[in-house]
Amino acid sequence: MAQTFAEKLFSRKNLTGDLAYAGDVVEAKIDGAMLHYHANEPLYDMAIQAGFKNGMPSVWDPEKIYVLLDHHQPTLSLKQADENALIRKEVERLGIQHFHDSEPGIAHQMMLDYAYMRPGELIVGNDSHTISYGAINVGGNGITRADMFYALLYGELWFQVPESIKIILNGKNPNYPIAKDIILYLAGQYGDDFANSMSIEYSGSLSSQLSLDSRMCLSAHGVEVGAKLATFEFDNKVQEYLNGKTDVPYDPIGADSLAVYSKEITVNVDEMPFVIAKPHQFGNIAPIDETAGIKINQAQIGSCANGRYEDIEIAARVLKGRKVAKGVRFLISPASQTIYLQCLKNGLIETLIESGAQVITPGCGICQPKIGFISDKEVCISSTTRNFKGRKGSLNADIYLAGPMSVAYAALCGEIRNPKEILNDI
């Protein structure tokens, strides 16, 4: 019987060796585990609670565990510093080989930068946006800390094989990042739970045109529409990216042509307007023209969804030779040091700073209430992941989500505007 990506993935990893289909529960071998700033809980706290008086006695494979202290780098409190100190101690004691301590950045981007995940693998992480690894044909799945404790000990975990949705993306890739608009458009058309507990498979003529940056955005946002996996097909772009970055052999997964899907959705991006998520929900979508003229106090580009080179490059193009509007705080956070350096070498940072933007340390702070708080009745437009009340501080502030070009244009104008107005000038 023909299989989807998810069914093939869990068949391959199934410890019994049996084929797996949607709805089946399998005990699966995992290929890697990613931990970030909550690493102390499964590595130490839960071990103590389980009766291991000195912490976790061992891990299943020190070469396949990746610890990256993203949210708290640099640390912002004594409590965070103490937690990081404990993690350093446990990483050394357990012999974990891949540890990024003093390097700021978002764990998911760094997993890509260092090729810690490869096509056809099943990687778990103690963060919901682990789903973003599907951009390079990986089964990335966010799990609980309790599940991570078990996975670290045994290198396996149970999963229920999800049903699958095929999303066919057609049209021409424009000269600006379009991924954020695509996922927001889908959430607006079908609800922000349309992929609830399912696996998304992206395909279509546009899919192969998209950069890995754009694919990471779409895969990361799978969790915002309820998905368990969000994957792309393996192609030359993935292969070229991995060449020279890893010598670990990998075996990509492709769905069978006759695979059965719960639903299929087709989007022609040539006919899709610029869209925006209004407060306070990811699925509260409108064409951006409906919000035109709303004054903003802060604009943001960053996060595991949109902190990549193409997102920062479009902001530099929009602002080159221009100035951020008076009274607007425009914050930009590269997703990793690797991306930050790439932007520096290509002159983007100079352009942005000359325009009045603020470039801040790579990491997750720009997405959470850690950096760039907003006050009562302030308005923020952001290319980060979530816009619920209190996400950036005040419960009485408004957060709008949009693509990086829409965010940059709003920062330039001091209000939300349709970025098509500037397309011919950039």
List how many beta strands DSSP finds: 18
Question: Which strands sit side by side, in order, in the main sheet?
Answer: 4-3-2-5-6
Count of folded domains: 2
Structural class: alpha/beta
Quaternary state of this entry equals single chain
Distance between the terminal alpha carbons, to the nearest Å? 50 Å
Largest sheet descriptor = 5 strands, parallel
The number of helical segments is 13
- Fraction of helical residues: 25-40%
Percent strand equals 15-25%
- Mean pLDDT, as a whole number? 95
Rg calculated over all Cα atoms = 21 Å
CATH class term of the largest domain: Alpha Beta
In CATH terms, the superfamily of the largest domain is: Aconitase, domain 3
Known CATH architecture of the largest domain: 2-Layer Sandwich
CATH topology of the largest domain: Aconitase, domain 3
Low-confidence stretches: none
Query: What general form does the structure show?
Result: globular
